[in-house]
Write a structure and sequence with these properties.
Structural class: alpha+beta
Shape: globular
Order of helices and strands: HEEHHEHHEEHEEE
Radius of gyration: 18 Å
Length: 196
């Protein structure tokens, strides 16, 4: 997409999401993914971030063959947009770019979350287990870019994401179009986003 007022609006709309995502990463919320959507001049970009627990059922480093296979299978599944999003046929959208990967936190990122590695903890201290969970945080990222022939027909986006990933409970969606912007919380029972 070309830089434009819409791109600036998308950035402005994304800032609260970044702050919320940071809070959620600190709180380690499972079941909640985010989607950022921008539509301009027939170009549709969808970015989704999902906790590793929601996609593969774990967040630790995939060292065992079965875990590595699960991650690879998830990336393949996310790389097929029909598994994650559906667009109205009348919009005539075709996929032009897809990128999916797993992002895992490391010790440096953990430090940015405000954890003091030098602080001793008792064996009975529950903070140690919580610290270990944060240290193992991972999330999947996927980006789709579509070229749509009939932007006016792009009034909804469905999310079969919930059917594909049984641990997913909610998507916090933000969207920007040439006619407006909005937010919505999507769930298994209400998995279609209306672009108004």
């Amino acid at each position: 997409m070309k830089p434009s007022i819409l791109a600036l609006a998308a950035t402005a709309l994304a800032l609260p999401a970044v702050a919320q995502e940071t809070r959620e990463m600190d709180a380690h919320v499972h079941g909640v993914s985010t989607a950022q959507i921008a539509l301009e001049h027939g170009a549709l970009e969808i970015n989704i971030t999902a906790p590793g627990m929601d996609i593969v059922g774990f967040e630790y480093a995939a060292n065992a063959k079965a875990d590595k296979d699960a991650v690879e299978a998830a990336i393949r599944q996310l790389s097929t947009p029909e598994n994650v999003v559906t667009l109205p046929d009348a919009a005539g959208c075709r996929l032009t770019e897809v990128l999916s990967h797993l992002h895992t936190g490391d010790a440096h990122e953990d430090d940015e979350h405000g954890h003091d590695h030098a602080e001793p903890m008792d064996d009975d201290d529950h903070g140690h287990a919580e610290h270990a969970d944060v240290a193992q945080h991972s999330e999947f990222h996927v980006r789709y870019i579509f070229a749509c022939e009939n932007e006016d027909a792009l009034t909804t986006i469905g999310f079969p994401f919930f059917a594909a990933f049984e641990n997913a409970r909610e998507i916090e969606a933000q969207y920007v179009t040439e006619t407006g912007a909005g937010v919505a919380d999507l769930t298994r029972d209400a998995s279609e986003l209306a672009l108004q």
